[in-house]
Specification:
Layout: E1 6-10, H1 13-16, H2 23-28, E2 32-37, H3 43-52, E3 58-62, H4 63-71, H5 76-89
Parallel strand pairs: 1-2, 2-3
Length: 99
């Protein structure tokens, strides 16, 4: 998210609560966001991120994806760049690379 304000959020309660998501609050602000979760995302959070893509960039990443990237000596900057590009081009905030 080079050149723009961004928010990095790691949350737990909102992920487990299917009716609760921090993304609507972020949409009201002037920043996009990278949301990282250890336990996955509720369907409400995924839908909120998709809706939010009409206004700014939101990326959802699971901690396990990041760990696997690092374990395979992957480039974390390239990992997030790909997720950001997919969120923009495919309107998919929860893109997961195959492999």
């Amino acid at each position: 998210m080079t050149g723009s304000a961004s928010l990095l959020s790691t949350g737990f309660g909102w992920v487990r609560d299917p009716g609760k998501s921090p993304i609507p609050n972020a949409i009201r602000g002037d920043v996009g966001g990278i949301f990282i979760s250890y336990s996955g995302f509720s369907s409400a959070a995924i839908e909120d991120a998709k809706t939010g893509l009409t206004q700014k960039v939101f990326v959802l990443a699971e901690l396990q994806e990041i760990i696997e990237t690092l374990e395979h000596e992957g480039d974390l900057k390239a990992f997030f760049k790909e997720k950001i590009n997919r969120a923009k081009s495919d309107r998919n905030p929860f893109f997961k690379a195959q492999g």
